[in-house]
């Protein structure tokens, strides 16, 4: 009986070990499958849109670039406030040019960006369209107001005026610094500022939350008549140093001193 009892105990032990091994293998396989599914999960069109919209929101400054090259780049604050609705993600973009400590020169410019997925037949991920505002005065200081003092998203739809430009963004290839990059179509969009016939825009969204933006205007002969020539503006997220001297005496952009006509204020 003693021998028989020992033999039965060993069989039970071997059976338990085998069962435990099967369970462990199953758990490993299930865990691996879940991890693989998570890693290989495709990013949806609206995921791309959300990433770009979130990257454009918040405050960013070109102060560092303006400090290095004040003759060509100005200290500009970009402040983007995200507004959402059923038709897409609208971004109210406010630009403030810091020049001299004079309220007259502390200009506020507001544009609406519509951030939405590219249509399936297009070879891009995100479509970023810029629109003018029907009543610019109503949106003065928009980005510095509280939510209660701003026009609400459903009101914004009715205030969006003419379409200005559209940039088509694609997700950057692996190994590049950027997340998304793109530009307007090759022939750009109509523009009459400072003798221009058309304008182009390039945009890059970087992994460190920087935004690189390059706007240029050309005449009928293809000569650049406005916009920087050395490269894009580099806007970096706001830091404590961004506010240390907001009214640094930088050269004020000459084209902004001209009389502003119509709904166009600053191409961005």
From TrEMBL:
Keywords: Lyase. Pfam families: CpeT. CDD domains: CpcT. GO terms for molecular function: lyase activity. Belongs to the CpcT/CpeT biliprotein lyase family. This is Chromophore lyase CRL, chloroplastic. The lineage of its organism: Eukaryota, Viridiplantae, Streptophyta, Embryophyta, Tracheophyta.
């Amino acid at each position: 009986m003693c021998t028989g009892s020992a033999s039965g105990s060993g069989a039970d032990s071997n059976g338990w070990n085998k069962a435990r091994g099967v369970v462990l293998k199953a758990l490993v396989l299930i865990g691996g499958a879940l991890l693989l599914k998570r890693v290989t999960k495709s990013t949806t069109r609206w995921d791309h849109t959300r990433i770009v919209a979130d990257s454009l929101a918040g405050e960013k400054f070109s102060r560092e670039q303006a400090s290095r090259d004040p003759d060509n780049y100005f200290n500009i604050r970009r402040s983007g406030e995200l507004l959402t609705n059923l038709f897409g993600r609208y971004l109210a973009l406010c630009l403030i040019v810091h020049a001299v400590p004079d309220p007259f020169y502390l200009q506020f410019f507001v544009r609406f960006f519509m951030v939405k997925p590219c249509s399936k037949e297009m070879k891009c991920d995100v479509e970023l369209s810029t629109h003018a505002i029907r009543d610019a005065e109503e949106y003065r200081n928009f980005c510095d107001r509280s939510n209660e003092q701003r026009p609400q998203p459903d009101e914004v739809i009715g205030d969006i005026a003419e379409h200005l430009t559209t940039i088509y963004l694609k997700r950057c290839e692996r190994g590049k610094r950027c997340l998304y990059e793109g530009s307007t179509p090759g022939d750009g969009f109509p523009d009459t500022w400072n003798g221009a016939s058309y304008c182009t825009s390039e945009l890059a969204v970087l992994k460190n939350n920087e935004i690189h933006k390059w706007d240029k205007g050309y005449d009928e002969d293809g000569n650049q008549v406005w916009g920087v020539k050395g490269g894009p503006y580099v806007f970096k997220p706001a830091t404590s140093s961004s506010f240390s001297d907001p009214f640094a005496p930088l050269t004020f952009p000459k084209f902004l001193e001209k009389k502003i006509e119509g709904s166009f204020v600053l191409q961005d």
